[in-house]
Design brief:
The chain has about 525 residues and is of the alpha/beta class. It contains 16 helices and 25 strands. The strands form 8 sheets. The chain has a 5-stranded parallel beta sheet, with helices on both faces. A hairpin with a 2-residue loop joins strand 21 and strand 22.
């Protein structure tokens, strides 16, 4: 299948009455899911959506989000997911920049009214947005409720074909970057490359028809949309969206829904492992974990197997500009390879490690990861200058990530170029330092950033979430911070060892589970 609409129809034909989507009391079979998607596509066509039109989606992992997005695809439109952590001005920028004609929006999520934030923004709702659909109650004045919007569909929409022909070369998503280091840029992705990439992804990790997939990765992110919704359609796995990561609720849903697939960045698993009540939850149905975004220490891999029961743990690496996927471990790789690397290039994709001049570096030497292949974005939306900066004349996508590659092509992502700091003339990679510090019994989670130093230029500073049972008193914490600095100096090169440690209750995370290091730098 080379388009998302064809994927939806194929899933209904292959998996029929099997459970496709579970959200609260709603339980849809694959046939039922297809019918809801066709109905939404019919409503969109009746509203006046034309092929190629952009539609914004700003809300959490609810079934309405999934149906709306797939309906847009079936109607020939382009989905523009919006980060749920964005403020009104940021969302307004994304909508205006993409020229979205329609917006599906949450009006009450964890006490936040996203539409209210948008209306209160400097420019308000952008003029390009002709209508706003409230995903759930309440339905504010000037908007239409989700059921009322769906009611516009022709009577035979559920049983009929999708209302617009879609080709594999048509755009399916414009996924905006996080905007944590500047204005977000819209990554244009097409149907055929996305479908091809995630069929490869699902095959590599071994996702199966009998898997029940708790999608905690947000739908607005490639992991939640492509590796979540689309991968389930490809394999017949049951998608169970989870609107917000909360350790007790996730641990409760595992036995309730017999969850077998639980993905996420390492911080997610570490938070679960650190929970004091973990042993009171039945996690025996867990089978498959897919992680990435940061190194996974060997002790964490062992704890995930022994305490959480995972049989398969796979790491991978990708970026939005590469459809969210570039390298993967294979599930027959030795455990130490899965623990220590982000795998090798997926089929028909090239990955290299290069120096600042674009020359490939020797095996084992650090450099920038570059990617070339069908999975590379079509470009940044209406931004040829940024596109030319990201993709060179030979078609290599420059990731901004630093890593090494071994003789077999397996890569180790050591850091972001922007996160690396230079201490006394030596390049220091925070991710490497963090992985070492996790071996200390007081350390539950850790993030290292560089801070200015008059003599050395920059030095490391570690923000640490204490492990369960660690010291909590002010005097004890002060002593523990000093002890941890000494511990690091004994175990790593001087330029790597943090000069300071701050214990914190939690690390600031974005909705994808990545640590917001710019916030930590601001604290310093």
């Amino acid at each position: 299948m080379t388009t998302i609409p064809a994927l939806i129809d194929d899933a209904a034909a292959r998996f029929g009455g099997a459970e496709a989507l579970v959200d609260g009391e709603l339980r849809l079979s694959f046939v039922g899911l297809r019918d809801r998607v066709h109905e939404m596509a019919g409503s969109l066509a009746a509203w006046g959506l034309a092929p190629g039109d952009r539609v914004g989606l700003w809300g959490p992992n609810w079934w309405e989000w999934a149906i709306a997005a797939l309906g847009v695809h079936a109607a020939g439109g382009v989905v523009v997911p919006i980060n749920t952590r964005f403020k009104g001005d940021e969302a307004s920028y994304v909508l205006d920049r993409s020229g979205a004609r329609l917006l599906f929006c949450s009006t009450d999520f964890l006490g936040t009214d996203h539409l209210g934030l948008l209306r209160a923004a400097g420019g308000g709702v952008p003029s390009c947005v002709e209508e706003v659909v409230a995903l759930r109650e309440p339905v504010p004045s000037g908007t239409v409720g989700f059921p009322d919007f769906v009611a516009q569909a022709p009577p035979d929409a559920r049983a009929g074909a999708a209302p617009a022909p879609v080709s594999g070369n048509d755009p399916c998503h414009i996924m905006f970057t996080s905007g944590t280091t500047g204005r977000p840029k819209g990554v244009v992705l097409k149907h055929a490359p996305v479908c091809r990439a995630y069929r490869s992804w699902a095959s590599v990790i071994g996702l199966r028809h009998d898997d029940r997939y708790l999608i905690i990765n947000p739908f607005f992110h490639s992991f939640g949309l492509n590796a979540g919704i689309l991968a389930c359609l490809m394999t017949g796995a049951t998608m169970i969206p989870h609107p917000v990561f909360d350790v007790p609720s996730v641990m409760a849903r595992v036995p309730q829904e017999r969850i077998s697939m639980l993905p996420g960045p390492p911080a997610v698993y570490q938070t679960i492992l650190n929970h004091p009540d973990l042993d009171s939850f039945d996690m025996s149905t867990l089978r498959l974990a897919v992680t990435g975004a940061a190194p996974v220490p060997v002790p964490m891999i062992e704890a995930m197997r022994q305490r959480l029961g995972f049989k398969v743990i796979v790491t991978g690496y990708g970026l939005t500009e590469a459809s969210g996927i570039a390298t993967m471990c294979r599930h027959d790789d030795p455990p130490e390879v899965i623990s220590a690397t982000s795998g090798r290039a997926i089929d028909d994709v090239e990955v290299r490690v290069v120096d600042p001049g674009g020359r490939e570096v020797p095996t084992g030497e650090p450099g920038e990861i570059v990617v070339r292949g069908y999975n590379v974005m079509d470009g940044y939306f209406d931004d040829p200058e940024s596109t030319a900066t990201a993709i060179d004349a030979d078609g290599w996508l420059h990731s901004g990530d630093i890593g090494t590659m071994d003789a077999a092509g397996y890569v180790v992502i050591t850091d972001r170029l922007k996160d690396m700091f230079i201490c006394g003339g030596f390049n220091a990679y925070p991710a490497e330092i963090e992985a070492a510090m996790l071996a200390h019994p007081q350390v539950g989670q850790v993030a290292v950033v560089g801070r200015p130093d008059e003599r050395l230029g920059e030095v490391g500073h570690a923000f640490v979430v204490p492990a369960p049972g660690a010291a909590t008193g002010a005097a004890e914490i002060g002593a523990a911070e000093a002890e941890l600095v000494d511990w690091c100096r004994d175990r790593m090169a001087n330029y790597k060892a943090p000069r300071g440690v701050t214990f914190v209750a939690e690390l600031p995370l974005n909705a994808s589970g990545k640590v917001l290091k710019h916030e930590l730098r601001a604290r310093l």
